[in-house]
Specification:
14 strands, Immunoglobulin-like
Length: about 475
C-alpha cells in the first residue's frame, strides 16, 4: 500500500472516531458567577456505587461545561463543595442550566433539555404538594378527633376532597410524561422512596400499597442501576416495614416476605443477587433485626439455584454455624495472654474456665480501622459490665508481638493472640470474616447476641441485664 494511501486511511479513521465521539458525547453547561474558580463534578451511578463522569473548574465568568456519554444514561449529580447536590437526567439531550442566584445550586433550573425541564418542574411542584398534604392531614385529624370540631362534617368532606385532588394532580403529571422518557420510570420510584417517612407517620393507609410497590420493583432493571435509587430503595423498603406500627413478630413476617420477593426477582442474575444480598444482609445487621438477617442468610445458603461469591458465602455461613441459640466452641487461651484482673496463682486456661454469667468475645486487631474506637468504648464500659457479671475476651488477629502488646496490653480484660491472623483456629471455628466481630454468650456458651457494635452490646446489657426486661 502506498504511503499517501496509508496516511489517507489514518486521517479518515481519525475523523470517523472523532465524529463517533461527538455523536456519543453530550454536554451539560451552566452559569454560577458567584462560584468562579470552584471545582465542579458530574457524578453517575452504577448499582450501589457512584463514579466520576467528568470534572472541571468554574470559569471567571461563572460558566462551566461537562461532558457525558451514552453509557452514563440515567441520573447524575452535580457536586460543588459546600453546596447542595443538584440532580440531572443524563438521557442523551444537551443540557443547559440557569440559576436565579449567583452562588447556589438550589436555584438552578434547566433552560435547555426537555426531560430536565420536566424533572425540575415536578420536583418543585411535588414538594409544595407534599407540604399542602401534610397541612390537610393535620386539619383532618383535628376535625375528625377533636370534639370541638367533629360536628363540622362538611369541613371534613372538603378536606378529603382537596387531599384527593392534590394526589390526582401529582399522579396526572407523572402519567402524562412521554413513555420513552427516563423520568417516566424514575420519578414514580423516587416518589415511593421519598414518601416512606411521611407515609409511616401521617398516611398510614398507604403503608400496604407502598409495600406492594416496593416488592414489585425489578432489581434487575438497568434503569434502577443507573438511578442512584438502589441503596435508598432497599433502606426505605425495610424501614417502612420496621416503622409501620406493626408488632415485632409481624415485622419479621413482612421482612421475610420481602426478602423472598427480592431473591426470587434476582435469581436469574447472579451478579446482582450477590451485590444486593450482601448489602441487604449488612443493612439488617446494622439495624439489629437479626431474625431477618438470619433468615436471609439461610434462605441464600439453602437456595440451590444460586451461586454465592466466596466472601458472601463465608459471611452467611457464619450465621448458619454461629446463629443465636447455638453453642459457641470452647477454645484454649493460646499464645500471648493478658489477664490483669486475675491472680498469678490462678489464670483461666480456656474459655470454659470463666465463671461469669455472660462473656463477650470480641475479634479485632490493631490494623482494623474500626477496632481502636470500639475497643476504647469497651474499656470505658468494662467496669460496669464486670459489675453485672459480664466478662470480656479480646481475641486479636495481630501478626506480631509488638503490634499486639502495643495495642492490647492496656486493656483491663482478657486479651489473647496466637499471631495466625485469619488462620487462627479460634477465628476459623467462630467463622470470623471481618473485624470487629462480637459474640455475647451466656454461662452455657450459648450465643444470645451478635451485636454489630459495642454500643449495641451496651444497649442490650442495659435493657436485659441492668433493667431486667424480658
Amino acid at each position: 500500500m502506498k504511503l499517501n494511501s496509508i496516511a489517507h486511511l489514518i486521517i479518515t479513521n481519525f475523523f470517523i472516531c472523532l465524529m463517533s465521539f461527538q455523536v456519543n458525547a453530550q454536554t451539560l453547561s451552566g452559569h454560577l458567577p458567584g462560584l468562579s474558580g470552584e471545582p465542579i463534578k458530574l457524578i453517575g451511578f452504577k448499582g450501589l456505587d457512584s463514579y466520576l463522569i467528568d470534572s472541571t473548574g468554574i470559569q471567571k465568568n461563572g460558566s462551566f461545561q461537562l461532558s457525558f456519554k451514552s453509557g452514563d444514561y440515567g441520573m447524575g449529580l452535580l457536586l460543588v463543595p459546600n453546596l447542595k447536590p443538584f440532580s440531572v437526567v443524563l438521557c442523551g439531550e444537551q443540557i443547559k442550566l440557569r440559576s436565579s442566584t449567583s452562588d447556589a445550586t438550589e436555584s438552578m433550573l434547566a433552560a435547555e433539555g426537555e426531560e430536565n425541564k420536566r424533572l425540575g418542574t415536578y420536583l418543585t411542584e411535588h414538594a409544595r404538594r407534599e407540604q399542602a398534604l401534610s397541612a390537610w392531614n393535620y386539619l383532618y385529624r383535628m376535625y375528625s378527633l377533636d370534639k370541638l370540631f367533629t360536628p363540622q362534617a362538611e369541613a371534613v368532606k372538603s378536606i378529603l376532597k382537596e387531599k384527593k385532588r392534590i394526589k390526582e394532580e401529582d399522579n396526572l403529571f407523572l402519567s402524562n410524561l412521554p413513555k420513552d422518557f427516563y423520568i417516566a420510570w424514575y420519578l414514580p420510584k423516587w416518589k415511593l422512596i421519598q414518601s416512606a417517612g411521611v407515609i409511616a407517620r401521617e398516611r398510614t393507609e398507604e403503608i400496604n400499597p407502598s409495600l406492594a410497590a416496593f416488592r414489585a420493583l425489578d432489581y434487575r432493571d438497568a434503569r434502577l442501576y443507573k438511578s442512584g435509587l438502589l441503596r435508598d430503595a432497599l433502606e426505605s423498603h425495610f424501614w417502612l416495614i420496621e416503622n409501620g406500627g406493626r408488632s415485632l413478630d409481624s415485622v419479621y413476617i413482612e421482612m421475610k416476605i420481602s426478602i423472598d420477593r427480592i431473591i426470587e426477582n434476582l435469581l436469574p442474575d447472579q451478579n446482582k443477587l450477590n451485590e444486593i444480598s450482601e448489602y441487604l444482609f449488612q443493612l439488617l445487621e446494622k439495624r439489629s433485626v437479626f431474625k431477618a438477617s438470619e433468615y436471609l442468610a439461610l434462605r441464600l445458603l439453602n437456595e440451590k439455584s444460586c451461586t454465592l461469591d466466596h466472601d458472601l458465602s463465608a459471611q452467611l455461613e457464619s450465621y448458619r454455624a454461629m446463629k443465636i441459640g447455638n453453642t459457641a466452641p470452647d477454645f484454649d487461651f493460646r499464645g500471648d495472654v493478658f489477664a490483669p484482673m486475675y491472680q498469678k496463682e490462678w489464670m483461666p486456661q480456656k474459655l470454659s474456665d470463666l465463671k461469669s454469667e455472660y462473656t463477650a468475645i470480641v475479634f479485632g486487631a490493631s490494623w482494623c480501622p474500626q477496632c481502636p474506637p470500639e475497643l476504647s468504648t469497651l474499656v470505658r464500659l468494662y467496669p460496669s459490665l464486670k459489675s453485672h457479671q459480664i466478662e470480656v475476651v479480646f481475641a486479636s488477629l495481630d501478626e506480631t508481638a509488638s503490634a499486639f502488646n502495643n495495642f492490647a496490653s492496656v486493656f483491663p480484660f482478657i486479651s489473647i493472640c496466637d499471631y495466625n491472623k485469619w488462620e487462627s483456629p479460634i477465628v476459623k471455628n467462630y467463622h470470623v470474616f471481618s473485624t470487629p466481630t462480637i459474640y455475647l454468650l451466656n454461662s452455657n456458651r450459648e450465643i444470645i447476641l451478635r451485636p454489630h457494635s459495642v454500643s449495641q452490646l451496651a444497649s442490650w446489657v442495659d435493657w436485659y441485664v441492668v433493667k431486667g426486661n424480658k
